[in-house]
Amino acid sequence: MPLVPVLARMERNGVALDLALLSEMSWDLAQRLGELEKEIYGWVGYEFNINSTQQLSDALFGKLGLPATGLRKTSSGSYSTAVDTLESLKDKHPVVNLILEHRQLSKIKSTYVDALPKLVNTKTGRVHTSYNQTGTVTGRLSSSDPNLQNIPVRTEVGRRVRNAFIAEPGWSLIKADYSQVELRILAHVSQDPAMLEAFARGEDIHATTAAAVYGVPLSEVTPELRRVAKTANFAVTYGVTGYGLAQSTGMSQEEAEKFIRNYFARFPKVKEYLDRTKKTAAERGWVETLLGRRRYFPELKSTAPMHAQARAAAERMAINMPIQGTAADIIKIAMVRLQKALDERGLHAKLILQVHDELVLEAPDDELEQTSALVKAIMEGALKLDAPLKVDIKLGRNWGEME
DNA sequence: AACTAGGCT
DNA sequence: GTATAAGCCTAGTTG
User: Fold this and answer.
1) First-to-last CA distance in chain A?
2) SS (H, E, C) A303-356
3) pLDDT band at residue A68, thresholds of 50, 70 and 90?
4) pLDDT tens across A98-155, in order?
5) Which pLDDT tens digit goes with each residue over A371-390?
6) What is the CA A57 to C1' B7 distance in angstroms?
7) What is the pTM of this model?
8) If you count DSSP H runs as helices and E runs as strands, how many of each does chain A have, helices first?
């Protein structure tokens, strides 16, 4: 095999940025942050470093005297100023919302808007992340310098950052993401009939879950019920507790515990799978993905006494690894097969991003149809599951606006 | 370097 | 009685 010159290889795998957009965003954010600082100082009565959790805590709980009783504390004993704490204080003082907005905007500005342009390669005009293939315990990749697996998407200002990831003129981005891949893996490995059937029918799995758990017809599932069921579906693969589900949904702990009981009553094989995984982890000292990737838990196998808390934490990791790791195995298989298929067909698309259950390619506009079909077929065919893999394809000129 | 916080799947 | 959802990376503050 001839050596591919480094630069030629890099030109195949970077992603272009809209530097003008990021520059405009940086200026806008600086203005807004300046306004917020003035207002915050006005409410507090003096200037301080809002980025300092210590100084912020002093301002809120000292100077302004906000009620701190019952609030979470950090490991070093001071009052937490994390977002869930601040959310609970929203109604107590008008400065709290200003701080929340300041937090969000300064995160976006420092970590993305101002950092990304500095990492554009001067030779290629693109950013070239590093994908670490041996950096995780589950088999996932990780991404660094910059991390392109945590580019904002949830908020409006965040999504504008994604809009800055663009295709070259004459090219488009193809985004292909696995639909509910971890739940499909859970359905397959647990062989739970209700869950398998929902996927076989192509149903909205979160709505189906809500209907089953609450015992109502699918037509009566409200957005709120679906939201809770969606959170619960994710939480199950993490080894959920009533407390955790309550925190993430807003339910009371009692309601959350009842929900979980109903969930396992409706999906009994899921419960059996979770218990079986915990048991084998303790007996063998390891768990594995469908493809045989292992994660070891010597502490669970050891006869030495374990703190209940440490055991529970290790069990949650053991529950999650085969699910998350199988998803990682699947997308890795797809990536290898996809690059081979692109080469064989003489297609010019470049694989430019992997975000755990999503691939992004840049493809010439006249090859979009053929490339999209190929990507979908290869990703969906990467592994045969009893809950078949499904891939959604979107196209766009940038990563934030795709359809 | 430790800690806190927060962005993503 | 206590802690309580898996896996990552980066930025800013503090000592």
Assistant:
1) 39
2) CCCCCHHHHHHHHHHHHHHHHHHHHHHHHHHHHHHHHHHHHHHCCCCEEEEECC
3) confident
4) 999 999 999 999 999 999 999 999 899 899 999 999 999 999 999 999 999 999 999 9
5) 999 999 999 999 999 999 99
6) 22
7) 0.94
8) 16, 11
Distance from residue A253's CA to nucleotide C4's C1', rounded to whole Å: 11
Q: Which tokens is A101 given?
A: 């907005």
Token couple for A310: 């440490």
Closest nucleotide relative to residue A236's CA, C1' based: C5
DSSP-based three-state secondary structure for A359: strand
Taking the C1' atom of B2, which residue's CA lies nearest?
A76
Residue type, A78: S
Q: Which nucleotides on chain C have any atom < 7 A from a protein Cβ?
A: 1-15
Q: DSSP letters along A148-190, please?
A: -SS---SSHHHHHHHHTEEPPTTEEEEEEEETTHHHHHHHHHH
Q: Is the pLDDT of residue A1 over 50?
A: no
Residue A280: HSE in the Cβ half-sphere, 13 Å Cα cutoff:
13
Structure tokens at A399: 């990563």
Q: What does residue A164 show for φ and ψ, rounded to 5 degrees? A: -80, -10
Residue A146 and residue A14: Cα distance in Å, rounded?
12
Give me the phi and psi of A256, to 5 degrees please: -65, -40
DSSP string, A12-23: TT-EEE-HHHHH
CA distances from A5 to A2, A9, A46, A81, A307 (A): 9, 6, 58, 50, 54
Q: pLDDT tens across A251-291, in order?
A: 999 999 999 999 999 999 999 999 999 999 999 999 999 99
